[in-house]
Each structure stands twice: as C-alpha cells, then as structure tokens.
Amino acid sequence: MTINTVAILSPGEMGAAVGRALHQHGFDVVTWLGGRSGATRERAKTAGFREIATLEALLGDADIVLSILPPELAPATAETVAAAMKRAGRRPPYADCNAVSPETVRRIGATIRAAGGVFIDAGIVGNPPGKAKPTRFFVSGEAAGLMDAFDGKGLDVRQSGPEIGRASAIKICYAAITKGTSALHAAVLIAAERLGIADELHVELPYSVPDLYKRMETMVPALPAVAGRYIGEMKEIARTMDSAGVTPNFHVGATELYQLLETTPFASERRDTVDPNRGLRRTVKVAAEYVKARPAAE
What we know:
- By secondary structure, the chain is an alpha/beta fold.
- It has 2 domains: about 160 residues, Rossmann fold (3-Layer(aba) Sandwich), CATH 3.40.50; about 120 residues, N-(1-d-carboxylethyl)-l-norvaline Dehydrogenase, domain 2 (Orthogonal Bundle).
- It contains 11 helices and 8 strands.
- Helix 2 links the parallel strand 2 and strand 3.
- Helix 4 packs parallel to helix 5, helix 6 packs across helix 10 and helix 9 packs antiparallel against helix 10.
- It starts with a strand and ends in a 9-residue tail after the last helix.
C-alpha cells in the first residue's frame, strides 16, 4: 500500500518531532487533539500537523496511525482507537511506538486486532528527529514492512522480525541501560551529598573516570525535566526484566529516583528550557533536600 497521510497520536516532544520530519519529507501529517491544551495545538501547528476534528474522521483520512505517547497511556489509547475503528468502519494499520514491555505491546496488539485492525510493534531509540543521528525505529510484526515507507525520511527504520514484542524488547533493553544508568548516577550523587562526602567524590570522579563524569555533567541536570515521562518507562522496564527472569529491582529503584526528581522545583522545566547555568552540583544539592527519610534497613 502507498502511505501518504500519517496520523500521529500525539504531538508531544517526540511525536511532534517525528511529525515534523515526516511533513518535511512530503507526508500529510494529521492528528486529533480532543481535550489537549492550547500549547499542544500550537506545537502541532508549528510542526506542520493538520488537525482533524474527530478520531473517527482521523481514521478515515489516515493511511497509518503512529501512537507516540507516555507509556502509561498506550493501552487506553489503543482501546479508544479500537472502538473508533469499529464506529468508523475504517481500520488503518496501527503502530504502537511507545516504551512498553513486550507483554504490554502484545496486549495492545490484541486490542487492535480484535477491532479488525493491522498491528505493528515499534520501538523508538535515540533523540527526536533533527539531531545529528537519525532517530531509529525498530519495528516488528507481520505488517512491519509498511514502516519502510519512512526509512531515510528523517527516520532510520530497522526491521526486527515478524514477532510482536521484539521491537519493544529492543527499545526497553536500550532504555534500561541509558536511562537506568542516568538514574544510578543521580542516585549515588544525591547519596554523596547526604553523606557529606560530595566534595571529595566530585574531585575523584573527573580525575579517575573523566568521560563518565562528563556524561553525568551533561545528563543529570536535565533529568528532573524528563522525570515525569521516565517513571512509566521504568515500570515497563522492571516488568520486562522480571518476565525475563532477571531482577526488576534496579529499575524499581530507578522509578523511585525519577519520582524524587519530579518533586524538585526543576521538574517544571522542559528539556529545551533546562537552565544551562545550574550545573550538576546545584541540581544534585537541591534534589538531596527533597529526599524523604526511609525506614531503617534490617
């Protein structure tokens, strides 16, 4: 089939960037913004989206639907779309592109297929389109070949096999390392502040592991701005690790770390409005003040 019109649910930071890239490569990018804020509407308009009044009308126009949402919203969104497919009598292929576990994506796929739809598993790896490296879309499922329409058009599409769950597993394992490592770094630095040895640690780290410390300086100050989005992802990672027979507790802890960072004043920032002058030490010092006492270990 030929793909001309791409529906994206919804134009958040990643969704808007994907839509912008596809719009720049000639695709008609549409969305439905029922109940969304004026800021979201403005972001979609700036990215070149065409807003459609109802979800049923969106399905009528779209050649494919890409779900790009916070992971905790993905199952309910699929249920809403499946119900609209039945009402509209129109069932464009549906690609779930969210950071969910293989178990969750198989459940989402079952919801879409029960409505008579075609389902694609997709996992997004890397920064939003527009950065130095193309954003990677790992895709799997029997209909995953449809996603090749976007390869080389702002996206790097990588086929991962016919099994639903493989693409999501790749995304989850990648994020378990990258975002999980950032959580570990922040947690240990916060602990150092509370233990009163932060000055010594911040001298030793750039001396003995300068590349690692540079990563901390780059990544940790921005974590409060994205913490709210990472919490659901850490829960999906923990679920995936548990299903693989590996301890989920690393990422249960990462979930708690991001929940802590979300309580700090810096959580009101966006990734593009993070104060570049605040730096690593200030971020960690303030976060340490928001730590709540935990029960003593037995």
